[in-house]
Amino acid sequence: MKRHQQWIISTLLAAVCSSAAWAQTPPPPPPAEPGHPHHPAGHMDMEKWQEKARERMAKRQAELHDQLKITAAQEGVWKAFIQSMEPKMPPKPRDPQEMEKLNSVERMEKNLDGMREHQAQMQTRLTAMKNLYAALNPEQQKIFDEQHKRVKKEMQDRMAKQMMRRDPPAPDRP
User: Where is this region: Disordered (predicted)?
Assistant: First the structure.
């Protein structure tokens, strides 16, 4: 009888321990929303996603244009600024098999070339922004700064939200 009780106790203890461990397993991240490029039910057409992004960007640019009250004299630098902000198509992913054929130094050089291209794009945007900013009066500059901060904050929040979906925080452990 004693042996039977020990078996029951050890079985119950094992069940309790395993259920406690199971309860601490973080839930899987929620699936991407339908229409998001990473939705598992079928990837949204990347061109369609980019078109929606362009529409959102055009709407924001029109709102900023109105808020800044861009004058006819400022229209040229405004258009150059908008043109510099046009999203560039990301480069096609490198073929993993081709990259595998390269040695470490060559792979690093390829990565550095990509970073240089990105830096050149950023420099073009910065130059256009500087030209626009110089053409704005102090009141317009203040509006521009406030809007730029707001958009940056929204982007950071959106990226943090996406990161949380992919990698939920570990549960607190005693």
Answer: 21-43, 141-174
Q: Which helix (H) or strand (E) holds 36?
A: none
> Where do we find the tokens 């990509």?
114
Q: Are 53 and 87 in contact (CB under 8 A)?
A: yes
Domain spans, the chain: 52-87+96-163
Half-sphere exposure of 166 (CA within 13 A, CB side): 8
Taking the alpha carbons at both ends of the chain, their separation in whole angstroms is 37
- Fold for 52-87+96-163, please state it: Four Helix Bundle (Hemerythrin (Met), subunit A) (1.20.120)
Taking only the tens place, the pLDDT of each residue in 78-132 is: 999 999 988 776 667 778 888 889 999 999 998 898 899 889 999 999 999 999 9
Assessment of whether the complete model's pTM goes beyond 0.90: no
